[in-house]
Amino acid sequence: MKKKINCTFPQQIIREPLLYNLSRDFTVVPNIRGASVTDDSGFMALELEGEQENIDRAILYLRDRGVRVEVAEERGASKS
């Protein structure tokens, strides 16, 4: 399963290793599709790959850390 998300990071957590934590703690592979980071804020377009449950848990983790997460697109889901 792959899910594209857009993340906006507040200043106080820009230096935290959040993507590393996603990979280590949630068995999700983050792929950076685009990014803009300054000393004041950060934006990343990410593609997360993994089991749906792990992706959902990873998104909750990011939101709990203060990241604004918007789901951009889902791939790999069956269409009815």
Your description of this structure?
- This protein is an alpha+beta fold and 80 residues long.
- It has two helices and four strands.
- Helix 1 runs antiparallel to helix 2.
| Mean pLDDT rating | 90
- What is the helix fraction of residues, given as a range? 25-40%
Helix/strand order, N-terminal first: EHEEHE
Radius of gyration equals: 12 Å
Give the neighbour order of strands across the main sheet. Answer: 2-3-1-4
CATH superfamily: ACT domain
What oligomerization state is this entry in? Answer: single chain
Number of strands: 4
Count of structural domains: 1
Question: What's the tally of helices?
Answer: 2
| Secondary-structure content class | alpha+beta
Distance between the termini: 17 Å
Strand percentage: 35-45%
Brief write-up:
28% of the residues lie in helices and 44% in strands. By secondary structure, it is of the alpha+beta class. The chain has one domain: Alpha-Beta Plaits, CATH 3.30.70.
